[in-house]
Amino acid sequence: MNGRLFLVPAPLGDNPPEEVIPPYVFGQIAHVTAFAVEDIRTARRYLSRIGFRGKIDTLTFYEISEHSSMQDIEHIAEHFSEGLDMALISEAGMPAVADPGAALVALAHKAGVEVVPFPGPSSLMMALMASGMNGQCFAFAGYVPARTDARRRRLKELENRSRRNSETQILIETPYRSDALLQDILSVCEPSTKVCVAADITLPGQYIRTLTVAGWRKEGLVITKRPAVFLIYAGI
Amino acid sequence: MNGRLFLVPAPLGDNPPEEVIPPYVFGQIAHVTAFAVEDIRTARRYLSRIGFRGKIDTLTFYEISEHSSMQDIEHIAEHFSEGLDMALISEAGMPAVADPGAALVALAHKAGVEVVPFPGPSSLMMALMASGMNGQCFAFAGYVPARTDARRRRLKELENRSRRNSETQILIETPYRSDALLQDILSVCEPSTKVCVAADITLPGQYIRTLTVAGWRKEGLVITKRPAVFLIYAGI
């Protein structure tokens, strides 16, 4: 009998976990003793806060990062054959979405292991629903290129794709480049294109606003180094 | 001073709301007296379960459906200018994603109303994270066409797009056509293409499995009339 793989979300910042994840979920994983995580130190702190205080030292941690090789991840997956449940935890938000855990989930399916996702805060989904843009048709393209000319080309492509397919484009950027990204969006996109900035989602200071490019140029905005999701919509 | 617009998720089926939405969220909306909903009867039942029992008859309900005109929705948005908070509730999952509430959210932004999304179960996001497919690049195209030939053409397009962009394609279908859709996917897609079926997410009988088209053809599956999300991945 195989163990199961639980997919456990984490808060998007330093806010109390029970505000954004049902405590019922913490009960469902209370028996788990093995965790696949991106950073052991922050995972220990998180588990402490959700009911594992006092037994952290009895837990097994496996690290998965963008530098993990397929062999590393296959090694972690061997755990399943011992019949023990394991939980994959994200650093922030939903695991295996825009983070390196998906390879472990794929191996779980290959091994016939049951995969059990739990609900929690998804910055992409919460930004999408709060943007007022088309939620019937959308795409997420991850991080945009870091180099200015490649990034601007990419933004123009995304705007064109949005116009062609009436598709909301969701993008993210590392916090320290948030302001540069917004400036690039405002410089390459058409005045009528809608742009949503969703910063600090679920956190104190949450800021979510949708305006046209023309509106943003007029009003201006300094995001500073806050985590933010950007959405672009050029459809009718 | 404008009111705010709260975006409140609902369970994906008849399971207890507190299992999938943090009770903290119910506390945050306890003072709200106006609700924009798809179906007043089911909204009343849901609100009863999350703390509004005994005061349901004092609440104001506005119906938003796919048949609502822009004028209907502008009429609802007049509520904001009275300075009162309002909540938009989905029939299932996250409001304004794959449901008609997005127009109200767009009007809120136009009126400078603060939009506050809450976390909860997103069948699309939970299916994506549990699929083991690429979560760094994905697209949701909503419902596929109902007519067989148009649907098969569309599925082939989605498979090609997935291969070209290494992009996970997420699609949904009304429950009574789930089996027909799976059969169409298996008949038009390449043997090596991966297909995830995620049925009854967060509900008793939850079933989530990823196999190649060749694997599904061999194993077979009868989904019956359960709500399901389908994911296709043809990238490397």
**CATH superfamily (homologous) name of the largest domain in chain A:** Tetrapyrrole methylase, N-terminal domain
Beta content of chain A: 15-25%
- Approximate helicity band of chain A: 25-40%
Instruction: Please give the most extensive interface between any two protein chains, plus how many residues each contributes.
Output: A-B, 59 and 59 residues
CATH architecture of the largest domain in chain A: 3-Layer(aba) Sandwich
Distance, first to last CA of chain A: 53 Å
Largest sheet of chain A: 5 strands, parallel
What is the number of independent domains of chain A?
A: 2
CATH class call of the largest domain in chain A: Alpha Beta
Query: Can you tell me the overall shape of chain A?
Result: elongated
Work out the helix count of chain A: 9
Describe this structure as you would to a colleague.
The structure is a homodimer of 236-residue chains. Chain A has helices at residues 17-20, 23-28, 40-52, 70-77, 102-110, 123-131, 148-165, 178-188, 213-219, and strands at 4-8, 34-37, 60-63, 86-89, 114-117, 138-143, 168-173, 194-199, 207-212, 228-233. Helix content of chain A is 36%, strand content 22%. Chain A has two domains: 4-117, Tetrapyrrole methylase, N-terminal domain (Cobalt-precorrin-4 Transmethylase, domain 1), CATH 3.40.1010; 123-233, Tetrapyrrole methylase, C-terminal domain (Methyltransferase, Cobalt-precorrin-4 Transmethylase, Domain 2, 2-Layer Sandwich). Chain A is elongated and about 60 Å long. The relative contact order of chain A is 0.15. The mean pLDDT of chain A is 94. Chain A has 236 residues and is α/β, with parallel strands linked by helices. Chain A starts with a strand and ends with a strand. Chain A is built from nine helices and ten strands. Chain A has a five-stranded parallel beta sheet, with helices on one face. Chain A has a five-stranded mixed beta sheet with strand order 6-7-10-8-9, sandwiched between helices. At the A-B interface, helix 1, helix 5, strand 5, helix 6 and strand 6 of A face helix 1, helix 5, strand 5, helix 6 and strand 6 of B.
